[in-house]
Design a protein that fits this description.
Number of domains of chain A: 2
Mean pLDDT of chain A: 87
Strand order of the largest sheet of chain A: 1-2-3
CATH topology of the largest domain in chain A: Cytochrome-c3 Hydrogenase, chain B
CATH architecture of chain B: 2-Layer Sandwich
Strand content of chain B: 15-25%
Shape of chain B: elongated
Number of domains of chain B: 1
Number of helices of chain B: 3
Largest sheet of chain A: 3 strands, antiparallel
Number of helices of chain A: 14
Low-confidence stretches of chain B: none
Structural class of chain A: alpha+beta
Helix content of chain B: 10-25%
Strand content of chain A: 5-15%
Oligomer: heterodimer
CATH class of chain B: Alpha Beta
Structural class of chain B: alpha+beta
CATH architecture of the largest domain in chain A: Orthogonal Bundle
Low-confidence stretches of chain A: none
Order of helices and strands of chain B: HEHEEHEE
Shape of chain A: globular
CATH topology of chain B: Alpha-Beta Plaits
Radius of gyration of chain B: 22 Å
Radius of gyration of chain A: 21 Å
CATH class of the largest domain in chain A: Mainly Alpha
Chain lengths: ~375, ~120
């Protein structure tokens, strides 16, 4: 080889690449093989932590939607729970039931996006269309429940919920769950090409997954049975009967399979709760939506299991209506920087999108 | 597995499309949808609670001359800044501001729509 020539090529995957989603990776190649990958985040930074210091609790509940576009309800819940713990607000059993149903529906629609994106990364565009089509049934439900298809505008708020459930919604939810089961049956008809493109690709061994800080489905696909819903139950998860799907291989295909099994578990959870919603207030009687209150001079760190892994919020109050400091910890930060850089090393160019999307990333919750 | 797709293809021939031709027909929008605002100036007290609660500072109080010559303060909503959270609707003591089911609110001239 000529000595003047570089021994490697350098190029960017993203941020304008349709398969990368507002995130970029700097990649060094020799031939078809990646020798080094460096994550380059920051294209979606909106400064939530600073914005929240200038807003009161209700405004922050609305803002907490926007942390992750794919699952606003889950982030609503984390923020609401943190404020409730900080100020000792009680939530009725009814609100807790509805919250869990909504968060599990949100998990299903988030996993559907995941399969859509992963199918598209393997060149299987029909999968993308099926997933996004079926996701729309859930979005219609959200629109009836919260008033917005994607953004619920703080529907899950400190103290309960912003408004009452519409009538006869249980039947509609059951119908939608039937449709989702149909979609899952389509995904289970294994496409041979999809299998070839994902099996044995991007293998993350258990010790690496723990060392690099993977959480959620990525960790469970590597073989560790760990979930905040089981280890530190919040809301009413301790009363619900559900399993944690765990696989051992740790490749892109196992991650896909874990997500598929998790959707089935979510459907099981919702079906258990639907007929048992107790009567009661949807919002704590001492509170009124929009009427602000002071946060005590205390701090709290609270974590939840959202679709992509472990999400957490830290809030510190200072006897005023606005928090003094807010810190948001999204699961995608660790998945997109250490885990992705580790997995891409030694991979082939064609496998970059598959590895990227098999981690179920959301650049929005990472850049914040 | 290869031929499973053929009966499905035939079944799809008899299905209606899920999409509709938008301005002529529209999908049903559920009650409680957070769309364009409806503002009733007669009901408004001018208390300014909506201005305080708005997370995006999309509402400001302006002075409007009434028919009888008096000047009254009332909110002016800038739709461009609005995030349609509906907090103004929640805090309004007289329900002068409501969010409606109306979706298409872009001006034909491309002007910034303002509700006053």
């Amino acid at each position: 080889m000529n000595k003047d020539k570089k021994e490697y090529q350098e190029f960017l995957f993203g941020p304008a690449h349709p398969g990368s989603g507002n995130f970029s990776v700097r990649i060094k190649l020799t031939g078809e093989m990646v020798i080094e990958a460096k994550s380059d985040p920051g294209y979606l930074h909106r400064g939530f932590e600073k914005l929240m210091e200038y807003r009161d609790i209700w405004q922050n509940a609305v803002l907490s939607d926007r942390i992750c576009v794919f699952e606003p309800l889950a982030w609503n819940l984390i923020f609401a729970e943190a404020v409730e713990k900080l100020t000792d607000i009680e939530v009725s059993k009814k609100a807790k039931y509805i919250r869990v149903i909504l968060v599990e529906l949100s998990r299903i629609q988030s996993h559907l996006i995941w399969f859509g994106a992963l199918s598209s990364a393997t060149g299987f565009d029909t999968g993308l269309k099926i997933a996004f089509g079926y996701r729309d049934y859930i979005l219609d439900l959200f629109s009836a429940l919260t008033g917005g298809r994607i953004y619920p505008a703080g529907y899950i708020c400190p103290g309960g919920l912003r408004r009452e459930l519409p009538q006869n919604i249980e039947g509609r939810i059951l119908k939608v769950l039937g449709k989702i089961e149909q979609a899952i049956s389509y995904f289970e008809e294994e496409d041979p090409i999809f299998g070839v493109r994902t099996k044995g690709i991007g293998i993350l061994k258990l010790e690496d997954a723990i060392r690099l800080g993977a959480t959620g489905p990525v960790l469970r696909a590597s073989g560790l049975k760990d979930d905040v819903r089981k280890s530190e139950p919040y809301e009413i998860y301790q009363e619900i009967d559900f399993n944690l799907p765990v696989l051992k291989n740790g490749d892109a295909y196992s991650r896909f399979k874990v997500g598929l099994l998790e959707m089935k578990e979510s459907i099981k959870i919702i079906k258990q709760l639907l007929n048992k919603i107790p009567s009661g207030d949807f919002l704590n009687k001492k509170l009124k939506v929009g009427t602000t209150f002071n946060l005590p001079d205390k701090e709290i760190y609270l974590r939840n299991e959202i679709a992509r892994g472990e999400g957490a919020v830290y809030i510190k109050g200072n006897s005023g209506p606005n928090p003094e400091r807010v810190k948001i910890k999204g699961p995608s930060f660790l998945h997109l920087i250490p885990v992705l850089e580790f997995l891409l090393k030694g991979a082939e160019v064609a496998d970059i999108p598959v590895i990227y999307w098999s981690l179920n990333p959301c650049p929005a919750d990472m850049d914040r | 597995m290869k031929f499973k797709i053929i009966p499905k293809l035939f079944l799809n021939l008899f299905k209606r499309p899920l999409t509709v031709k938008f301005p002529a027909e529209s999908l049903s929008i559920p009650d409680g949808y957070r769309g364009k605002h409806r503002f009733l100036p007669d009901k408004c007290l001018g208390c300014g609670k909506c201005v305080q609660v708005c997370p995006n500072k999309a509402i400001e109080m302006v002075e409007v001359k009434q028919e009888d010559g008096t000047i009254k303060k009332q909110p002016k909503i800038d739709i461009n800044k609005c995030c349609f959270c509906g907090l103004c609707e929640n805090v309004c003591p007289t329900k002068a501001i409501r969010l409606t089911k109306e979706i298409p609110f872009v001006d034909e001239d491309g002007n910034a729509p303002v509700i006053n």
